[in-house]
Automatic annotation (TrEMBL):
Organism lineage string: Eukaryota, Metazoa, Spiralia, Lophotrochozoa, Mollusca
Signal peptide residue numbers: none
Superkingdom of the source species: Eukaryota
Span of domain Ubiquitin-like: 96-174
Official protein name in the record: Ubiquitin-like domain-containing protein
Transmembrane segments: none
Gene3D superfamilies noted in UniProt: Phosphatidylinositol 3-kinase Catalytic Subunit, Chain A, domain 1, sav2460 like domains
Amino acid sequence: MLCESPPGCGLEKLSEEFPPINPSPQCSHYIPYCLKCTVAFIEKNERCPYDECRESVSKTSKEMQLYYAILESMFGEEEHDEDNNDAKDSEIGQFKYLTIATISREHADVVIKYNESFTVINLKDKLYSKFGEEHARQKLYYGETELEEGNGNLVDYEIPNHATIYLIVQLYGVTGAIHAAVFDLSWEYPKGFLRRQGINIPVLTNRIDRKHVDASCFLLSGEFIEEIIDHKHTKSKFGRCVVHSKSMLTDDQRKGHQNIDVRFQDIPENITSVFFALSARDKSSISKFPNPSLQFYEQIRMTNVLCETTIPTDTKCRAIIMCYMTRSTSEDNSWEIYKCGKPSDGNDSDYTKLREDIKDIIRQFTK
């Protein structure tokens, strides 16, 4: 394929060396420039290189991170070594490439190069080195099919070149032996709170209130949101299956908490998934409240934390979807809890964007 000039290099390149997706979701055209030329143009101009488009593109966008990952997987440190380029180009055709798509902003999508002998274990090894997630926590899906360890090589799944594999990270498997548990959602106070000398009570030094974070729980039947539980609507219409607690502030630790109590056996059978989110009130950014975290434990053993996670908040959005759980197909009253970490927007005043993002996750990542 020809990399058109200008702004491309005018050289013939392999199809694998062209962008698999457009530089921006708003672009609706073919990119006739190779990855190297596309990346170089965006780094310099921060817009789509296609002259009739001119859509703005950030150098830190998800699409650019994917481009960087493809270039790294193809050329590595030898990318600028002209003596090795011919050897690299002839080698590319022996391999296929996978895009590993994730929910979390913490884990950017990556491109993996593999050959016919590549196994699911090999793939999980690579993802462990990139994300630090243990094999047992990695759930990999191609379409509706889970890629399982010990079931042959990747080629046995008939996955085409440049296909997308979806990675979800399991935090915990809830069995029928656990009847009632707590999703403890917490955050740290904004930096604007300082202690008075000799007193443990924080002092407000800006307009951000340490209480201005809320936990919300979304109960879904398929893609339909049956109910939202939050600090305004604290009890489920289905009974005692989900209850939202009041805010708890621990000034000595400079942390705020809101708990959502779940009684698994009381969840109606038509509820297939439950999502948990933290959102900042008013127009505040959730990033002003550091280290939003989840701890999950039984009500009768509150000191025995069964799983936990902390989500980075470098986003300017008002909300973050912390985790979700789906019914397990293995046995009755069992659930699987998954890490999420997807930035979103909105709060208890307007859940529109959160609703949309949750439905997108259902379509892409729940199997």
